[in-house]
Design a protein that fits this description.
Shape: globular
Order of helices and strands: HHEHHEHEHEHEEEHHEEHEHEEEEEEH
Number of domains: 2
Radius of gyration: 24 Å
CATH superfamily of the largest domain: Glycosidases
Bound molecules: beta-L-fucopyranose
Length: 517
């Protein structure tokens, strides 16, 4: 194949509709909650008593409100973790909320959370661990039927599901011996049939694990990758192993720096669209532990993760675990609210652009289209984009700003319906009449937040130096620097949440006092 033929082949690889959908979301939340929460464990072995599941003040609506406020578009919930304890009224086992004191065995956390999500316009997704340390069938072929029966209950009983997160963890059964070989193909088939709009993540064909659980994204992330088995085994080997696992340890195969450069692709003949997802917890553990109340990620760290993951052509899945009251702990709420305030502030002052120049555009797809952000809510396709008429050595785009101001962020989006193409670009700012480089970028993809030291300017130049065929740019937005602590749109949410928490604490104290009498 000639170089041109290869580039044509790479750029023919585009996202499916469900992938386009989740790429538009960018940032979703993960919620790990179950028996482990009450036992102070990360992984329990399926023998914990259901009696332990006894939240004093569970409020799934609070979770949804907090996570929505933080910016998450959807919530993925651990309907069943590796311990096999089911958080819904399942007919498949008694090892579930049915056997717990919660609502006298009548509670259904999956139902409550999906209803709360619906009420607040947040998408709802499920995590159903294939590894089950309680089920006696685990390790035999019948276990797959059991797992599929659980999937079916969840996919048919709780409205629309936007994501099914298949964890690759695959350990021994309760007897310590058998290990299951999961029939993923069968699970995919069931999911596609019952919830065709859902993405299948992690050990699934739609969303790829980035390769670590520490919040690290690649600098140049690609969605067009060789069609190889992104190694469910590799995921198994490299995700959390035990309570003391080092979640920062990257998987060497999945986290190798280069998965999609031209050099890399050259060795393959078949390719797939495979966006990365950075799954990371706000705390050291995935489940709540009181001892970690002081080890919550800082606002700066959360922002950095957001910029580099959600703003780095990856999806961000941020885990926030509710505590033993059944609510998201005040400390996490406070952190998330401050994170949201800073994030919203950072993008609150978009700089108007007076004029944009770029190489002669292809008929109908003019440069000004890049200044307008918009997409169709059904197809997730953008409403306009720019592409040059001809291929060239490099492409220079200049933006004359409507005012001189301090700029520290540029958001760029490629129209990925024409695949991912930009390989290398530089942003320069005009200072004292001269262009100075402020940002060296690799890939753009479905979302790139280029952030840099604030620079006072009234003109920016973006030069694409390397591209697969010609670029298709959907959007460029320029944002003014907002000083920390100066939030023009500070939210009243924090004081409301504080008041609610105060009221809840008073109630809990009163309850305790009554019980003590
Ligand atoms: C891992 C699991 O073992 C962890 O407990 C957690 O659920 C994480 C998201 O995936 O594989």
């Amino acid at each position: 194949m000639t170089d041109a033929q290869r580039l044509k082949l790479y750029t023919s690889v585009v996202p499916s509709k469900v992938q386009r959908g989740i790429q538009r979301d960018g940032f979703n939340a993960f919620v790990h909650y179950g028996l482990n929460t009450f036992a102070g464990k990360e992984w329990s072995d399926g023998t914990l008593s259901p009696e332990l599941f006894d939240p004093t003040d569970q409020d799934t609506e609070q979770w949804v409100k907090v996570l929505k406020f933080a910016g998450a578009k959807g919530i993925i919930f651990t309907a069943k973790h590796h311990d096999g304890f089911c958080m819904w009224q399942t007919a498949t086992t008694d090892y579930s909320v049915k056997s717990s004191p919660y609502k006298n065995g009548k509670g259904d956390v999956v139902a409550e959370l999906s209803a709360a999500c619906k009420k607040h316009g947040v998408k709802f997704g499920i995590y159903l661990s294939p590894w089950d340390r309680n089920c006696p069938l685990y390790g035999s072929a019948e276990y797959d039927d059991y797992y599929v029966a659980q999937l079916k209950e969840l996919l048919t009983g709780y409205g629309e599901i936007f994501a099914v997160w298949l964890d690759g963890a695959c350990g021994a059964a309760a007897d310590g011996k058998s290990v299951q070989s999961y029939d993923f193909e069968r699970y995919y088939e069931v999911i596609r049939k019952l919830q065709p709009k859902a993405v299948i993540s992690n050990c699934g064909p739609d969303v790829r694990w980035v390769g670590n659980e520490g919040g690290f994204a690649r600098e140049g992330e690609w969605c067009v990758l060789p069609k190889i088995d992104y190694a469910t085994q590799d995921i198994i080997a490299n995700s959390q192993h035990d309570e003391k696992a080092d979640m920062k340890k990257p998987s060497l195969v999945m986290f190798s720096e280069d998965l999609g450069s031209r050099e890399m692709l050259e060795n393959y003949s078949e390719f797939v669209w495979s966006p990365a997802e950075v799954d990371v917890s706000i705390r050291p553990g995935w489940f709540y532990h009181k001892s970690q109340d002081h080890r919550i990620r800082s606002v700066n760290n959360l922002l950095y993760i957001y910029y580099t993951a959600a703003g780095g052509n990856s999806l961000l899945l941020l885990n926030v675990p509710p505590d033993t009251t059944g609510r998201i702990n005040d400390a996490d709420v406070d952190r998330l609210v401050r994170f949201a305030d800073r994030k919203n502030a950072a993008f609150s002052m978009q700089v108007p652009v007076d004029s944009v120049t770029a190489p002669q555009h292809e008929e109908g797809n003019k440069a000004r289209n890049m200044l307008r952000f918009g997409f169709d809510k059904n197809s997730f396709e953008c409403t306009g984009y720019y592409t040059p008429a001809e291929e060239a050595e490099k492409y220079e785009i200049t933006l004359k700003l409507a005012k001189t101001c301090k700029v520290d962020k540029v958001r760029l989006i490629e129209n990925v319906s024409f695949s991912q193409r930009v390989e290398n670009f530089v942003i320069e700012a005009k200072v004292n009449g001269k262009f100075k480089p402020v940002y060296y970028g690799k890939t753009i993809g479905f979302n790139r937040i280029a952030f840099f030291r604030a620079v006072r300017t009234n003109e920016l130049k973006i030069t694409i130096y390397s591209c697969r065929l010609k670029p298709y740019i959907e959007y460029i937005g320029v944002f003014e620097h907002v000083k920390k602590g100066r939030n023009p749109h500070a939210s009243p949410f924090r004081s409301i949440m504080k008041a609610i928490h105060r009221a809840v604490n008073v109630r809990l104290a009163a309850k305790k006092a009554v019980n003590a009498d």
